Amino acid sequence: MFFNLFFSIIIIQRLAELFLAKKNERWMKQNGGEEYGVRHYQLMVMIHSCFFLSLLLEVFFFEKTIHSLWIVWLALFVITQLGRIWVIYSLGKYWNTKIIVLPSSKTISKGPYKYLKHPNYLIVTLELLIIPLMFNAYITLICFFILNQLILAIRIPYEEKILAENTDYAFIHNEQPRYFPKLKK
């Protein structure tokens, strides 16, 4: 019962995010934005879609039950969702699941972007760990954690290259870490 509710909420959330991303995409393209990385984006969408399918199948096929520490995993999941909202709010109309660049725009350096180059990728990576852990879906966890790291190994350098070529990204995010904030000494 909990799995069905949790899974449904995540799917609804993702569909709402895709709606927002499409709205932002239209605005960006109407204002001169150009899309990059279409081929690897399609692969990324496939990986993330298959993650949910795999989770669903593993939980039902292997009759997985909720983890004994589910409340901890749920709390961590809620924290990642607050981070996701912070990312979306900080980027505003520039937030998207695709790489779309407005060449004349200034790089966002507020919110979590003050501390990290790619907070959204960190959040997604954490979700791909937390969600399967909550339901003891270890096959899904291992397979999709690895697949996500492989696609990010392609996407992040490509995205940074495109942003550096078309915006002030390299200047703004020169010293920032990709995933984990540096601790001040």
UniProtKB/TrEMBL annotation:
Compartments where located: Membrane
Q: What InterPro entries does the entry give?
A: ICMT_MeTrfase, Metal_cation-efflux_comp
Q: Which domain of life is it from?
A: Bacteria
Q: Where are the transmembrane segments?
A: 40-62, 69-89, 121-147
Give the record's keywords alphabetically. Membrane, Transmembrane, Transmembrane helix
- Pfam families for this protein: ICMT
Just give the chief location class: membrane
- Record's bilayer topology term: Multi-pass membrane protein
The molecular function GO annotations come to: protein C-terminal S-isoprenylcysteine carboxyl O-methyltransferase activity
Q: Name one GO cellular component term.
A: membrane
This one is known as Isoprenylcysteine carboxyl methyltransferase
